[in-house]
Design goal:
Length: 307
């Protein structure tokens, strides 16, 4: 749905998107998921010059009940950046191979517990408390030896921090309003003089669900980041709009969305996805995102149980 999900999440995904959504969904939900993204597909251009490159891989397992969610996420981000003091355009191909480049790897394992609490008839507030065990490692190596695989293999000093996400969800019949703040404590991880920080992120959204008719439930949503977030390819602040429709007696779902960056050029990207019921309450989910926003390109798969 292009990432328009803060006011939609109501199953195991709520532990990541908006912890307040936990109270509004199914009695039991569990999800196993995997996602990856990389840009560009090669770390060097046709002349042998190193390109700024990044790759992320995420996997997770979450199980939720109406008042409690338990989650585990593993995330690794690997990067290659040319050494800024080197003028690559003034070097021949052999010198480019010897030029120093900066490689880094951030590996996070996050164990979380999510709880929600109703405040009156229409409002739910929730929080996810995570223990984050991470390793951040950096190195300077020759360009000819640089690869994202080598960056991912770097091993740094282990650190453990506590992080907190908070959220709120207000529901009025078919209309839902959501807001979520991630990384409230802004934990950081060090490698020598270099540091990687999980920056605080705030996001708000609105969704509307239409039920009845010849098609099953249809949901329309709009999200907007309230803060800027640094990424491997520059700062981003996204707006997103998406839709979801359930078909064939809720055995199949189709989704789509658009997102754009409001920092600098818009750099729009499009997302498509869907779900298929393997049996009652058991679904396989898939999605893919592509476009000019290099921070968004990727795909993911999940197996979800809900009842």
């Amino acid at each position: 749905m292009g990432g328009a999900f803060v006011a939609v999440a109501d199953d195991a995904d709520a532990t990541w998107w908006n912890p307040a959504g936990l109270a509004g969904g199914a009695y039991f939900s569990a999800i196993i998921e995997y996602g990856t993204a990389q840009d560009p597909s090669a770390a060097t251009d046709v002349n042998g010059s190193v390109l700024p490159s990044w790759r992320s891989g995420a996997r997770g397992f979450t199980v939720t009940f109406p008042s409690l969610g338990l989650s585990y996420y593993r995330l690794q981000v690997s990067q290659i950046r040319p050494f800024e003091a080197t003028d690559a355009n003034g070097l021949d191909r052999q010198d480019r191979g010897r030029a120093p480049v900066f490689v880094s790897s951030l590996l996070l394992q996050q164990f979380g517990a999510t709880v929600g609490e109703s405040v009156g008839e229409h409002l739910v507030v929730g929080s996810t408390v995570r223990v984050v065990h991470g390793r951040f490692a950096t190195a300077m190596i020759e360009a000819a030896d640089a690869s994202l695989d080598r960056a991912a293999a770097l091993d740094g000093h282990a650190e453990t921090h506590v992080d907190v996400d908070v959220g709120a969800m207000a529901a009025f019949n078919t209309l839902r309003l959501g807001v979520a703040v991630k990384h409230v404590t802004q934990p950081s991880f060090s490698s020598g003089t270099d540091r990687a920080e999980l920056s605080r992120q705030a996001r708000a959204g609105i969704s509307m669900t239409r039920r009845g008719g010849t098609v099953g439930p249809m949901t329309f949503a709009i999200d907007a980041d309230l803060t800027r977030t640094p990424t491997a390819v520059g700062e981003v602040r996204h707006v997103a709009a998406g839709a979801e429709a359930w078909l064939a007696g809720r055995r199949v779902a189709v989704r789509g969305g658009l997102t754009a960056n409001t920092v600098g050029d818009a750099r729009p990207s499009a997302s498509v996805g869907g779900s298929a019921a393997l049996r009652s309450g058991l679904y396989v989910d898939a999605h893919a995102t592509s476009g000019s926003d290099r921070s968004m390109s990727g795909w993911g798969l999940a197996l979800r149980v809900t009842f």
